[in-house]
Specification:
Elements lengths: L36 H13 L13 H4 L34 H9 L1 H10 L3 H35 L7 H4 L2 H15 L2 H4 L4 H6 L4 E6 L6 E6 L13 H15 L12 H17 L33 H16 L4 H6 L15 E4 L2 E7 L4 E9 L5 E7 L19 E3 L3 E4 L4 E8 L5 E12 L9 E8 L5 H29 L14 H11 L7 H17 L6 H17 L34 H10 L11 H17 L10 H25 L17 H16 L4 H43 L4 H5 L17 E5 L31 H9 L1 H7 L5 E5 L24 H10 L8 H9 L5 E5 L1 H4 L3 H8 L7 E5 L6 H4 L1 E4 L29 E4 L2 H11 L7 E4 L2 H4 L4 H4 L7 E4 L1 H13 L8 H18 L10 E5 L8 H18 L9 E5 L1 H10 L4 E2 L10 H14 L4 E3 L3 E5 L16 E3 L1 H8 L4 E6 L2 E7 L5 E7 L27 H12 L4 E3 L4 E5 L1 H13 L2 E5 L12 H15 L3 H17 L5 H8 L12 E4 L2 H10 L8 E2 L4 H8 L4 H4 L12
Parallel strand pairs: 4-11, 12-13, 12-18, 13-15, 14-15, 18-19, 20-21, 20-31, 21-23, 22-29, 31-32, 32-33
Antiparallel strand pairs: 1-2, 3-5, 5-9, 6-8, 6-10, 7-9, 10-11, 16-17, 23-28, 24-25, 24-30, 26-27, 27-28
Helix pairs in contact: 1-12, 7-11, 16-18, 16-19, 18-19, 20-22, 22-38, 36-38, 36-46, 37-38, 39-40, 41-42
Length: 1452
């Protein structure tokens, strides 16, 4: 019972608590007469149900309601639950009337009446006050709509986003004010006072007066450390929220961030310094994109129709609970009023002793990553003792007792009120928060430690936290959806426009006239890509088409082929794959008024090589194992010959054709005038120029032409005078006009040819350079059992022994060079001959081992036979024998082959040329003897046969004039130094070459030719590419196949023969990389390509070597398209000297100096542009080691073979000049910049007419010290480079010769190797021929070897650890030392070095000679020139002639 009012108290289970009940209205009840408590409660309940005060007058009710019994009648809100008829009576014994179903229905009907009565009883002021909040909200929403409309219009007018408008960004002043105010609070007073904190402490309010002006001005500025009358407020508006949300979304999508006041360096530094204090001062501060919006939920009692009220609850209590539910659900409570309302007094029965209840018994947290989620826990003291409590987090439970890993130290669950005291019957709230920086689900367990200890201890309070990542791609998906909708609209509109245009009736286009040469040329080259037209080629293809049509059965013409292809396409279009999305496409119907398009060009009679090949594939004999008809084989061979001839570009397609035409026309146009002027100077009448008539000219024109010729003859003088005058004119014209014109043409034509060649080298990707040589048939896929096999052995790893001709007067016979097999040569040859053993295991009838080694001396004129004697020897064999006298014989290989094949071969024999080409029938019968298989024949060196190599070299002696028996005594005798001794080199026509092959192999008829030499495949040899009748099928050998596979595997390149295989290889490599890195993507690191070499001097051969090296440079730069980390290229050797002189204009002494204005300089610039336009970084040496003349005294460092020249001063001097232009690319001029400290090159571009781009790095003063080297003083370095820096453009003295790179360059190379995951090496960095100048190459190979073996990495780790320990020890130092440590550059990330590749014949020798452990190199190419030619992008005819692995359904 309530001691004050005598009312019964509701039970504890139904009494509303302060956490669930709405605060009671603060109203005064005036009782006019004395009534019982039950009567007053019923009256109050009825009045409050009507929305009236109990002191108001009772309103009149409708008749329907007045007719009810008036005993215990009261109104009930229709939203209240129906009480159960079995409700118990109240504690004071007053009876409570029961509410029937009919009464409840009447109450529901009277709801509107009660609302009307309630409104009528209110005053005007009360009605205005009741709706003022709704009106304010409506006004605010209307104003927001006005502002939003203004923002849309302003954004449209200005062309900016709504978030970029000033009206939107004006809300940032709140953010800045809050941040500055919080930062000011966190800043210590000694910092804010500027060092005058003591003066501020003297004043009572902390004020300091700063004088303004002089001492007589009397002006002072008061500075206070506190703010007076400052209101700390946090205001959040929707504009500020939208602004921050848009900015965060832009930052997450990777858009460029606009610099604002937040990016101020001073502000960022202050926030980093006082960030912890700011968080401590404002722990629950709202973010700028958050709004504090309280959410009010209605509290409804349980449904009385499904659960009975608790026993002992009276009807008044149920009515009270219903009334609270109505007020909570129908009235919006003010959150501040809710917080200030005092809680209801507790009337629970306390338990004796310490008892505590915790509600709820488990906490669940759900938050975004890096966001805080807060939950409150109610701790209620249900005992009679005062309890001191403390929340303690339990240690995590391990699922396995064997777990040895440490626990995660990250704190995600935090208790903000860990300790406190709670009195008996009171409640306290404890706040827990959850924050996680990573997504996932986390758990924690807490226990309650109390004093005194509880009778029922609380040892485990579980908490679960879930951190989720918000959707970061919603805006991108919306933008993608809008873009796709726009594209669909445009597609539909364009399709509609095309349909309208197609429905217009047009005149049918006329068919092309194939009788016109221009039409033939255009259509033929359009149909046959890569082939060139000429009348003979056109006719040959037309004849071949006729032959193919004769061979085709009925119904297999071209029209039938097109019908089959069209039917197949239609069936494929009609067949929709299972699971396909979207609607079925409806085929368009061509309107009858539309013009019919032109039929395919092939159907018009334009010959096509692809169509002819497809038709030949349909002929009988293409089935596996079937014999091909002889007619089909002949047509296929003729088609291949026609395609080979059509691949040769005609002269008029040359890039210098029109230049030559203009030069000739310029010379010819001046010839008549010059000839006439010359005759006038000799006092002779000029001869008119009479153009000849056309061949089909009429007779009258012919007669006129003859008359003019006769008239011209009459103006001539005697023959001797004419001859003398003509000679004088020819010599003057040659000297003054013809020679200079040809010289200009030669210079421009050479530059054009070289730049075109360099530019064409960059058109192919690295994959396009390798794919044509993959997927070829090999000895593993071809069946060679019972066949004759020609096996080509690779000798590209060695240099052929040179021929030493005896002195002319010695009378000695020439000694042929000898093939010496020992050491590394023997080991390499054994590896290449292993393929012969593999072929023998397949059971061939015979294997012919062939090879090409060396180049024969030029043929000399044959001696005239003695009268009466006849030479019985065949002239062809005699010439072959003469060439073999200057070539090494392959006979020493016989013993090595016998050692390798062992007993697998039934016989082994060396066959000279006069045996297998002299008596071809007998040799063929011996080889085709079926009684023995696995016979091995070693044929003599095939380089002695020009019909095989395709090149013939001969020396021709000038013929003696007729009637003269002795040479002219005044003539200069030929010598080795004159051009007359140079041999004539001419190519053999394919007719002669294939005729020789058909003749010598007519009886032998080998079935297969195994191309196991990449070096030989670089040339179009007759055995490997000839198309004589019944030529052998070509397949690649095991060594070539293994070389290509090993290179792809070493560099992890996914290139394969077919797209399906390549896609599978890519997936496999990605899976393997993921397994190696434990599912994490490894950071990409570049590949370092070190390119050197020399031998670029000496005329055309040197220029050709330089061009090949530039093509290799361009080809290796294309590796950046396959390397995730890109490619870096370091140049050395004579190649670097050529770049320094030919591009940068530095004079390099006597070595590698190239004229920048010449054709070679243009080729160097073009090559550098082709490399650097892909983003490849190129670096040059910064110091060189030179060789000075012996009579010149120079200063040489200790242990150095020669004087060292630093290029840094010269490069700095070069940096002050305008940048070097490499040409134009996509309409922009490309300039090159150089870093003199590291030698790195950088490419920048600018529009034509625009100012030149700025330098990549600021200029350094001339007195700056270059990179110091071990054992070298800085002054000495500057002294050595002073001679190069004084003259403009001179880096190396004119009398010195560059021999090697210096130690500073090697130091830069070491740093680059540290940042790369692998290295590819080709060409020496110095002079390889002399051991004295091999230091640079040797040091580089040593660096690679150490990186592969991990040498020095532990020392670097120790140094890093020592530096970290020193930093930790020096943390207490002064501010200057801390600033120095903060300014220290970040530690470089270590890169695993897992790849080293060496390509090239000479580079392989360097590895074997200069490295201690060559086996540490991942891949060393042994094919010499073959693999390099693939990198250059030059075709390998020997490999392209090999058969492809075709699919079974291709029919080929």
């Amino acid at each position: 019972m309530d001691p004050m009012g005598g009312r019964p108290l509701p039970p504890e289970a139904t009494r509303p608590t302060d956490a669930t009940s709405r605060p009671r209205p603060r109203r005064r009840v005036v009782i006019k007469r004395q009534v019982s408590a039950s009567t007053f409660e019923k009256h109050k309940e009825r009045m409050e149900t009507l929305g009236l005060d109990p002191a108001d007058a009772v309103p009149a009710m409708p008749e329907a309601i007045d007719a009810e019994p008036a005993g215990d009648n009261f109104d009930m809100d229709p939203d209240l639950p129906m009480p159960s008829p079995s409700a118990a009576s109240s504690a004071n014994g007053d009876a409570v009337g029961r509410v029937t179903v009919q009464e409840t229905q009447k109450m529901i009907r009277s709801k509107e009446v009660r609302k009307t009565v309630s409104l009528k009883t209110r005053t005007v002021e009360e009605q205005i006050q009741a709706g003022k909040y709704d009106r304010a909200l409506d006004k605010f929403a209307k104003q927001q709509e006005e502002w939003e409309k203004f923002r849309r219009i302003a954004a449209k007018k200005t062309g900016r986003d709504k978030e970029d408008l000033v009206v939107t960004r004006a809300e940032e002043f709140r953010e800045r004010a809050e941040l500055m105010e919080l930062l000011d609070r966190a800043t210590p007073d000694e910092v804010k006072s500027g060092g005058h904190n003591w003066y501020h402490s003297l004043r009572g309010e902390g004020t300091r007066f700063v004088q303004i002006g002089n001492m007589f001005s009397g002006l002072f500025l008061p500075i206070k450390l506190h703010k007076e009358n400052y209101v700390h407020e946090i205001v959040r508006k929707p504009l500020l929220q939208d602004l921050h949300l848009n900015r965060n979304a832009a930052a997450q999508s990777g858009k460029k961030k606009t610099r604002t006041w937040r990016d101020d360096e001073y502000l960022q530094a202050r926030i980093r310094r006082y960030g912890a204090k700011m968080k401590e001062l404002a722990p629950g501060k709202l973010d700028f994109d958050e709004l504090l919006q309280p959410e009010v939920k209605a509290l409804r009692p349980e449904d009385p129709y499904h659960s009975d009220p608790e026993e002992g609850a009276s009807m008044e209590e149920m009515g009270l609970t219903g009334q609270m539910g109505e007020e909570a659900g129908g009235i919006r409570a003010d959150p501040l009023e809710l917080a200030e309302e005092p809680s209801a007094p507790s009337h629970m029965a306390l338990k004796a002793g310490p008892h505590v209840e915790v509600m709820p018994d488990k906490l669940e947290f759900v938050a975004n990553v890096s966001k805080m989620c807060t939950q409150r826990l109610i701790l209620k003291n249900s005992g009679t003792a005062v309890i001191q409590y403390e929340w303690i987090e339990n240690l995590p439970q391990h699922g396995f007792h064997e777990a040895v890993l440490p626990d995660d130290p990250t704190v995600r669950f935090t208790c903000h009120e860990t300790k406190g005291q709670v009195l008996p019957g009171e409640e306290v709230q404890t706040r827990f928060s959850f924050t996680s920086m990573i997504p996932g689900t986390f758990t924690s367990s807490w226990r309650l430690k109390t004093y005194p200890e509880l009778h029922e201890p609380i040892n485990e309070l579980f908490m679960n936290g879930t951190a989720t990542l918000s959707d970061l791609n919603s805006e991108r998906r919306s933008a993608f959806q809008a873009r796709m909708a726009k594209l669909q609209t445009l597609s539909l509109a364009s399709e509609l426009a095309e349909d309208i245009v197609a429905s217009v009736r047009l005149q049918p286009p006329p068919l092309p006239d194939l009788s016109l040469p221009l039409v033939q040329e255009r259509l033929f080259e359009e149909v046959n890509e890569g082939l060139y037209w000429n009348p003979q080629i056109w006719q040959r293809f037309v004849d071949l088409g006729s032959k193919v049509e004769e061979l085709l059965p009925a119904g297999f013409g071209f029209d039938a082929t097109l019908q089959q292809q069209g039917g197949a396409a239609a069936s494929m279009a009609a067949k929709i794959p299972q699971g396909a999305r979207g609607r079925r496409p409806v085929p368009k119907e061509q309107p009858p008024s539309a013009a019919q398009p032109l039929p395919p060009l092939v159907s018009l009679g334009v010959p096509s090589a692809a169509v002819l090949e497809a038709q030949l594939a349909k002929l009988p004999g293409t089935e596996p194992g079937a014999e091909k008809p002889a007619e089909k084989i002949e047509v296929i061979r003729e088609l291949k010959r026609a395609c080979r001839d059509a691949q040769k570009s005609p002269l008029e397609r040359s890039e210098v054709w029109w230049l030559a035409y203009e030069t000739v026309m310029d010379i010819v146009s001046q010839l008549p005038a010059k000839w006439g002027a010359s005759r006038q100077r000799a006092s002779l009448e000029p001869l008119p120029f009479v153009p000849p008539p056309d061949q089909d000219a009429p007779t009258e024109l012919e007669e006129q032409y003859q008359a003019k010729i006769e008239e011209r003859k009459t103006k001539k003088v005697e023959d001797e005078r004419e001859a003398e005058l003509r000679g004088i004119f020819e010599r003057g014209f040659m000297r003054n006009k013809f020679g200079p014109a040809i010289g200009r043409f030669s210079a421009i034509a050479k530059e054009t040819k070289l730049t075109t060649r360099i530019r064409s080298a960059g058109r192919l990707t690295f994959g396009d350079r390798l794919r044509p040589y993959l997927g070829r048939q090999s000895t593993e896929t071809a069946e060679v059992g019972g066949c004759l096999v020609l096996y080509e052995v690779d000798f590209g790893f060695m240099t052929a022994p040179a021929f030493q001709a005896p002195a002319p007067d010695s009378g000695e016979d020439p000694v042929p060079p000898q093939l010496v097999l020992q050491g590394d040569v023997l080991d390499q040859l054994k590896q290449r001959l292993q393929g012969v053993l593999g072929v023998l295991e397949s059971g061939p009838l015979a294997v012919f081992v062939v090879a090409h080694l060396g180049q024969p001396e030029p043929d000399k004129p044959a001696a005239s036979p003695v009268d009466g004697e006849e030479d019985a020897e065949d002239p062809f064999l005699k010439s072959v024998r003469a060439r073999m006298a200057t070539l090494p014989s392959l006979e020493p290989m016989l013993e090595l082959i016998a050692e390798i094949v062992g007993k697998t071969a039934t016989s082994l024999e060396f066959v000279p040329h006069n045996v297998w080409m002299g008596d071809m029938g007998a040799f063929a019968a011996k080889a085709r003897n079926d009684e023995q298989e696995n016979k091995v024949y070693l044929l003599e060196n095939l380089s002695a046969i020009p019909e095989e190599t395709g090149v013939c070299r001969a020396v021709h002696v000038a013929a003696t004039p007729e009637g003269q028996t002795t040479p002219d005594p005044g003539a200069v005798p030929p010598s080795e130094d004159t051009e007359s001794a140079a041999p004539d080199v001419f190519t053999m026509p394919w007719a002669s070459r294939e005729g020789w092959a058909a003749r010598v192999f007519r009886s032998l008829l080998p079935e297969f030719h195994v191309q196991d030499s990449l070096t030989s495949s670089c040339k179009a040899l007759t055995l490997g590419t000839g198309l004589w009748p019944r030529h052998p099928l070509r397949i690649i050998g095991p060594y070539v196949e293994a070389e290509l596979a090993a290179f792809l595997d070493a560099l992890q390149l996914p290139f394969r023969a077919s797209p399906e295989e390549e896609a599978a290889a890519v997936a496999e490599m990605e899976k393997q990389a993921a397994e190696e890195n434990d599912g994490e993507a490894a950071p990409p690191a570049p590949l370092l390509v070190v390119l050197g070499g020399g031998g670029f001097g000496g005329g055309r051969e040197g220029e050709e070597s330089l061009l090949k090296k530039l093509e290799l440079l361009i080809g290796l730069s294309r590796l950046t398209q396959a390397e995730k980390g890109g490619v870096q290229i370091a140049l050395g050797g004579e190649l670097a000297c050529c770049i320094l002189s030919g591009v940068l204009g530095l004079r390099m002494g006597r070595t590698g100096s190239v004229d920048p204005t010449g054709a070679i300089g243009a080729a160097l610039r073009e090559a550098l542009l082709e490399v650097m336009k892909l983003g490849v970084k190129v670096s040059l040496p910064i110091d060189l080691v030179c060789e000075a003349p012996k009579d010149e005294e120079v200063q040489v460092e200790d242990g150095a073979p020669g004087p060292r020249v630093s290029l840094i001063p010269a490069l700095r001097q070069l940096g002050k000049q305008p940048p070097v232009s490499l040409g134009f690319l996509e309409g922009r001029e490309q300039f090159i910049f150089l870093d003199p400290e590291t030698g790195g090159l950088e490419l920048k571009s600018c529009d034509p007419g625009a100012p030149l781009p700025a330098r990549a790095s600021p200029e350094l003063p001339e007195e700056a010290v270059p990179i110091a080297q071990e054992g070298t003083e800085p002054d000495a370095t500057l002294d050595q480079g002073a001679a190069a820096a004084e003259p403009s453009g001179e880096a190396v003295p004119e009398t010195w010769t560059v021999r090697d790179v210096g130690q500073a360059t090697m130091e830069c190379m070491r740093l680059r190797l540290r940042r790369c995951h692998g290295a590819l090496f080709n060409g020496s960095l110095g002079c390889w021929e002399d051991e004295l100048w091999q230091r640079g190459t040797k040091d580089f190979l040593k660096l690679v070897e150490d990186r592969m073996n991990g040498v020095g990495e532990d020392d670097e780790d120790d140094e890093d650890d020592e530096e970290e320990e020193e930093d930790e020890e020096d943390e207490g130092g002064d501010a200057e030392e801390k600033a120095k440590r903060e300014a220290k550059p970040p530690k470089e990330r270590r890169v695993d070095f897992d790849l080293s590749v060496v390509v090239g014949r000479d580079s392989r020798r360097m590895v074997q000679t200069l490295m201690e452990s060559p086996s540490s190199i991942s891949f060393v190419s042994g094919t010499g020139e073959g693999l390099l030619q693939i990198f250059r992008g030059v075709p390998l005819p020997g490999i392209l002639a090999c058969l492809k692995i075709e699919s079974k359904d291709s029919g080929a």
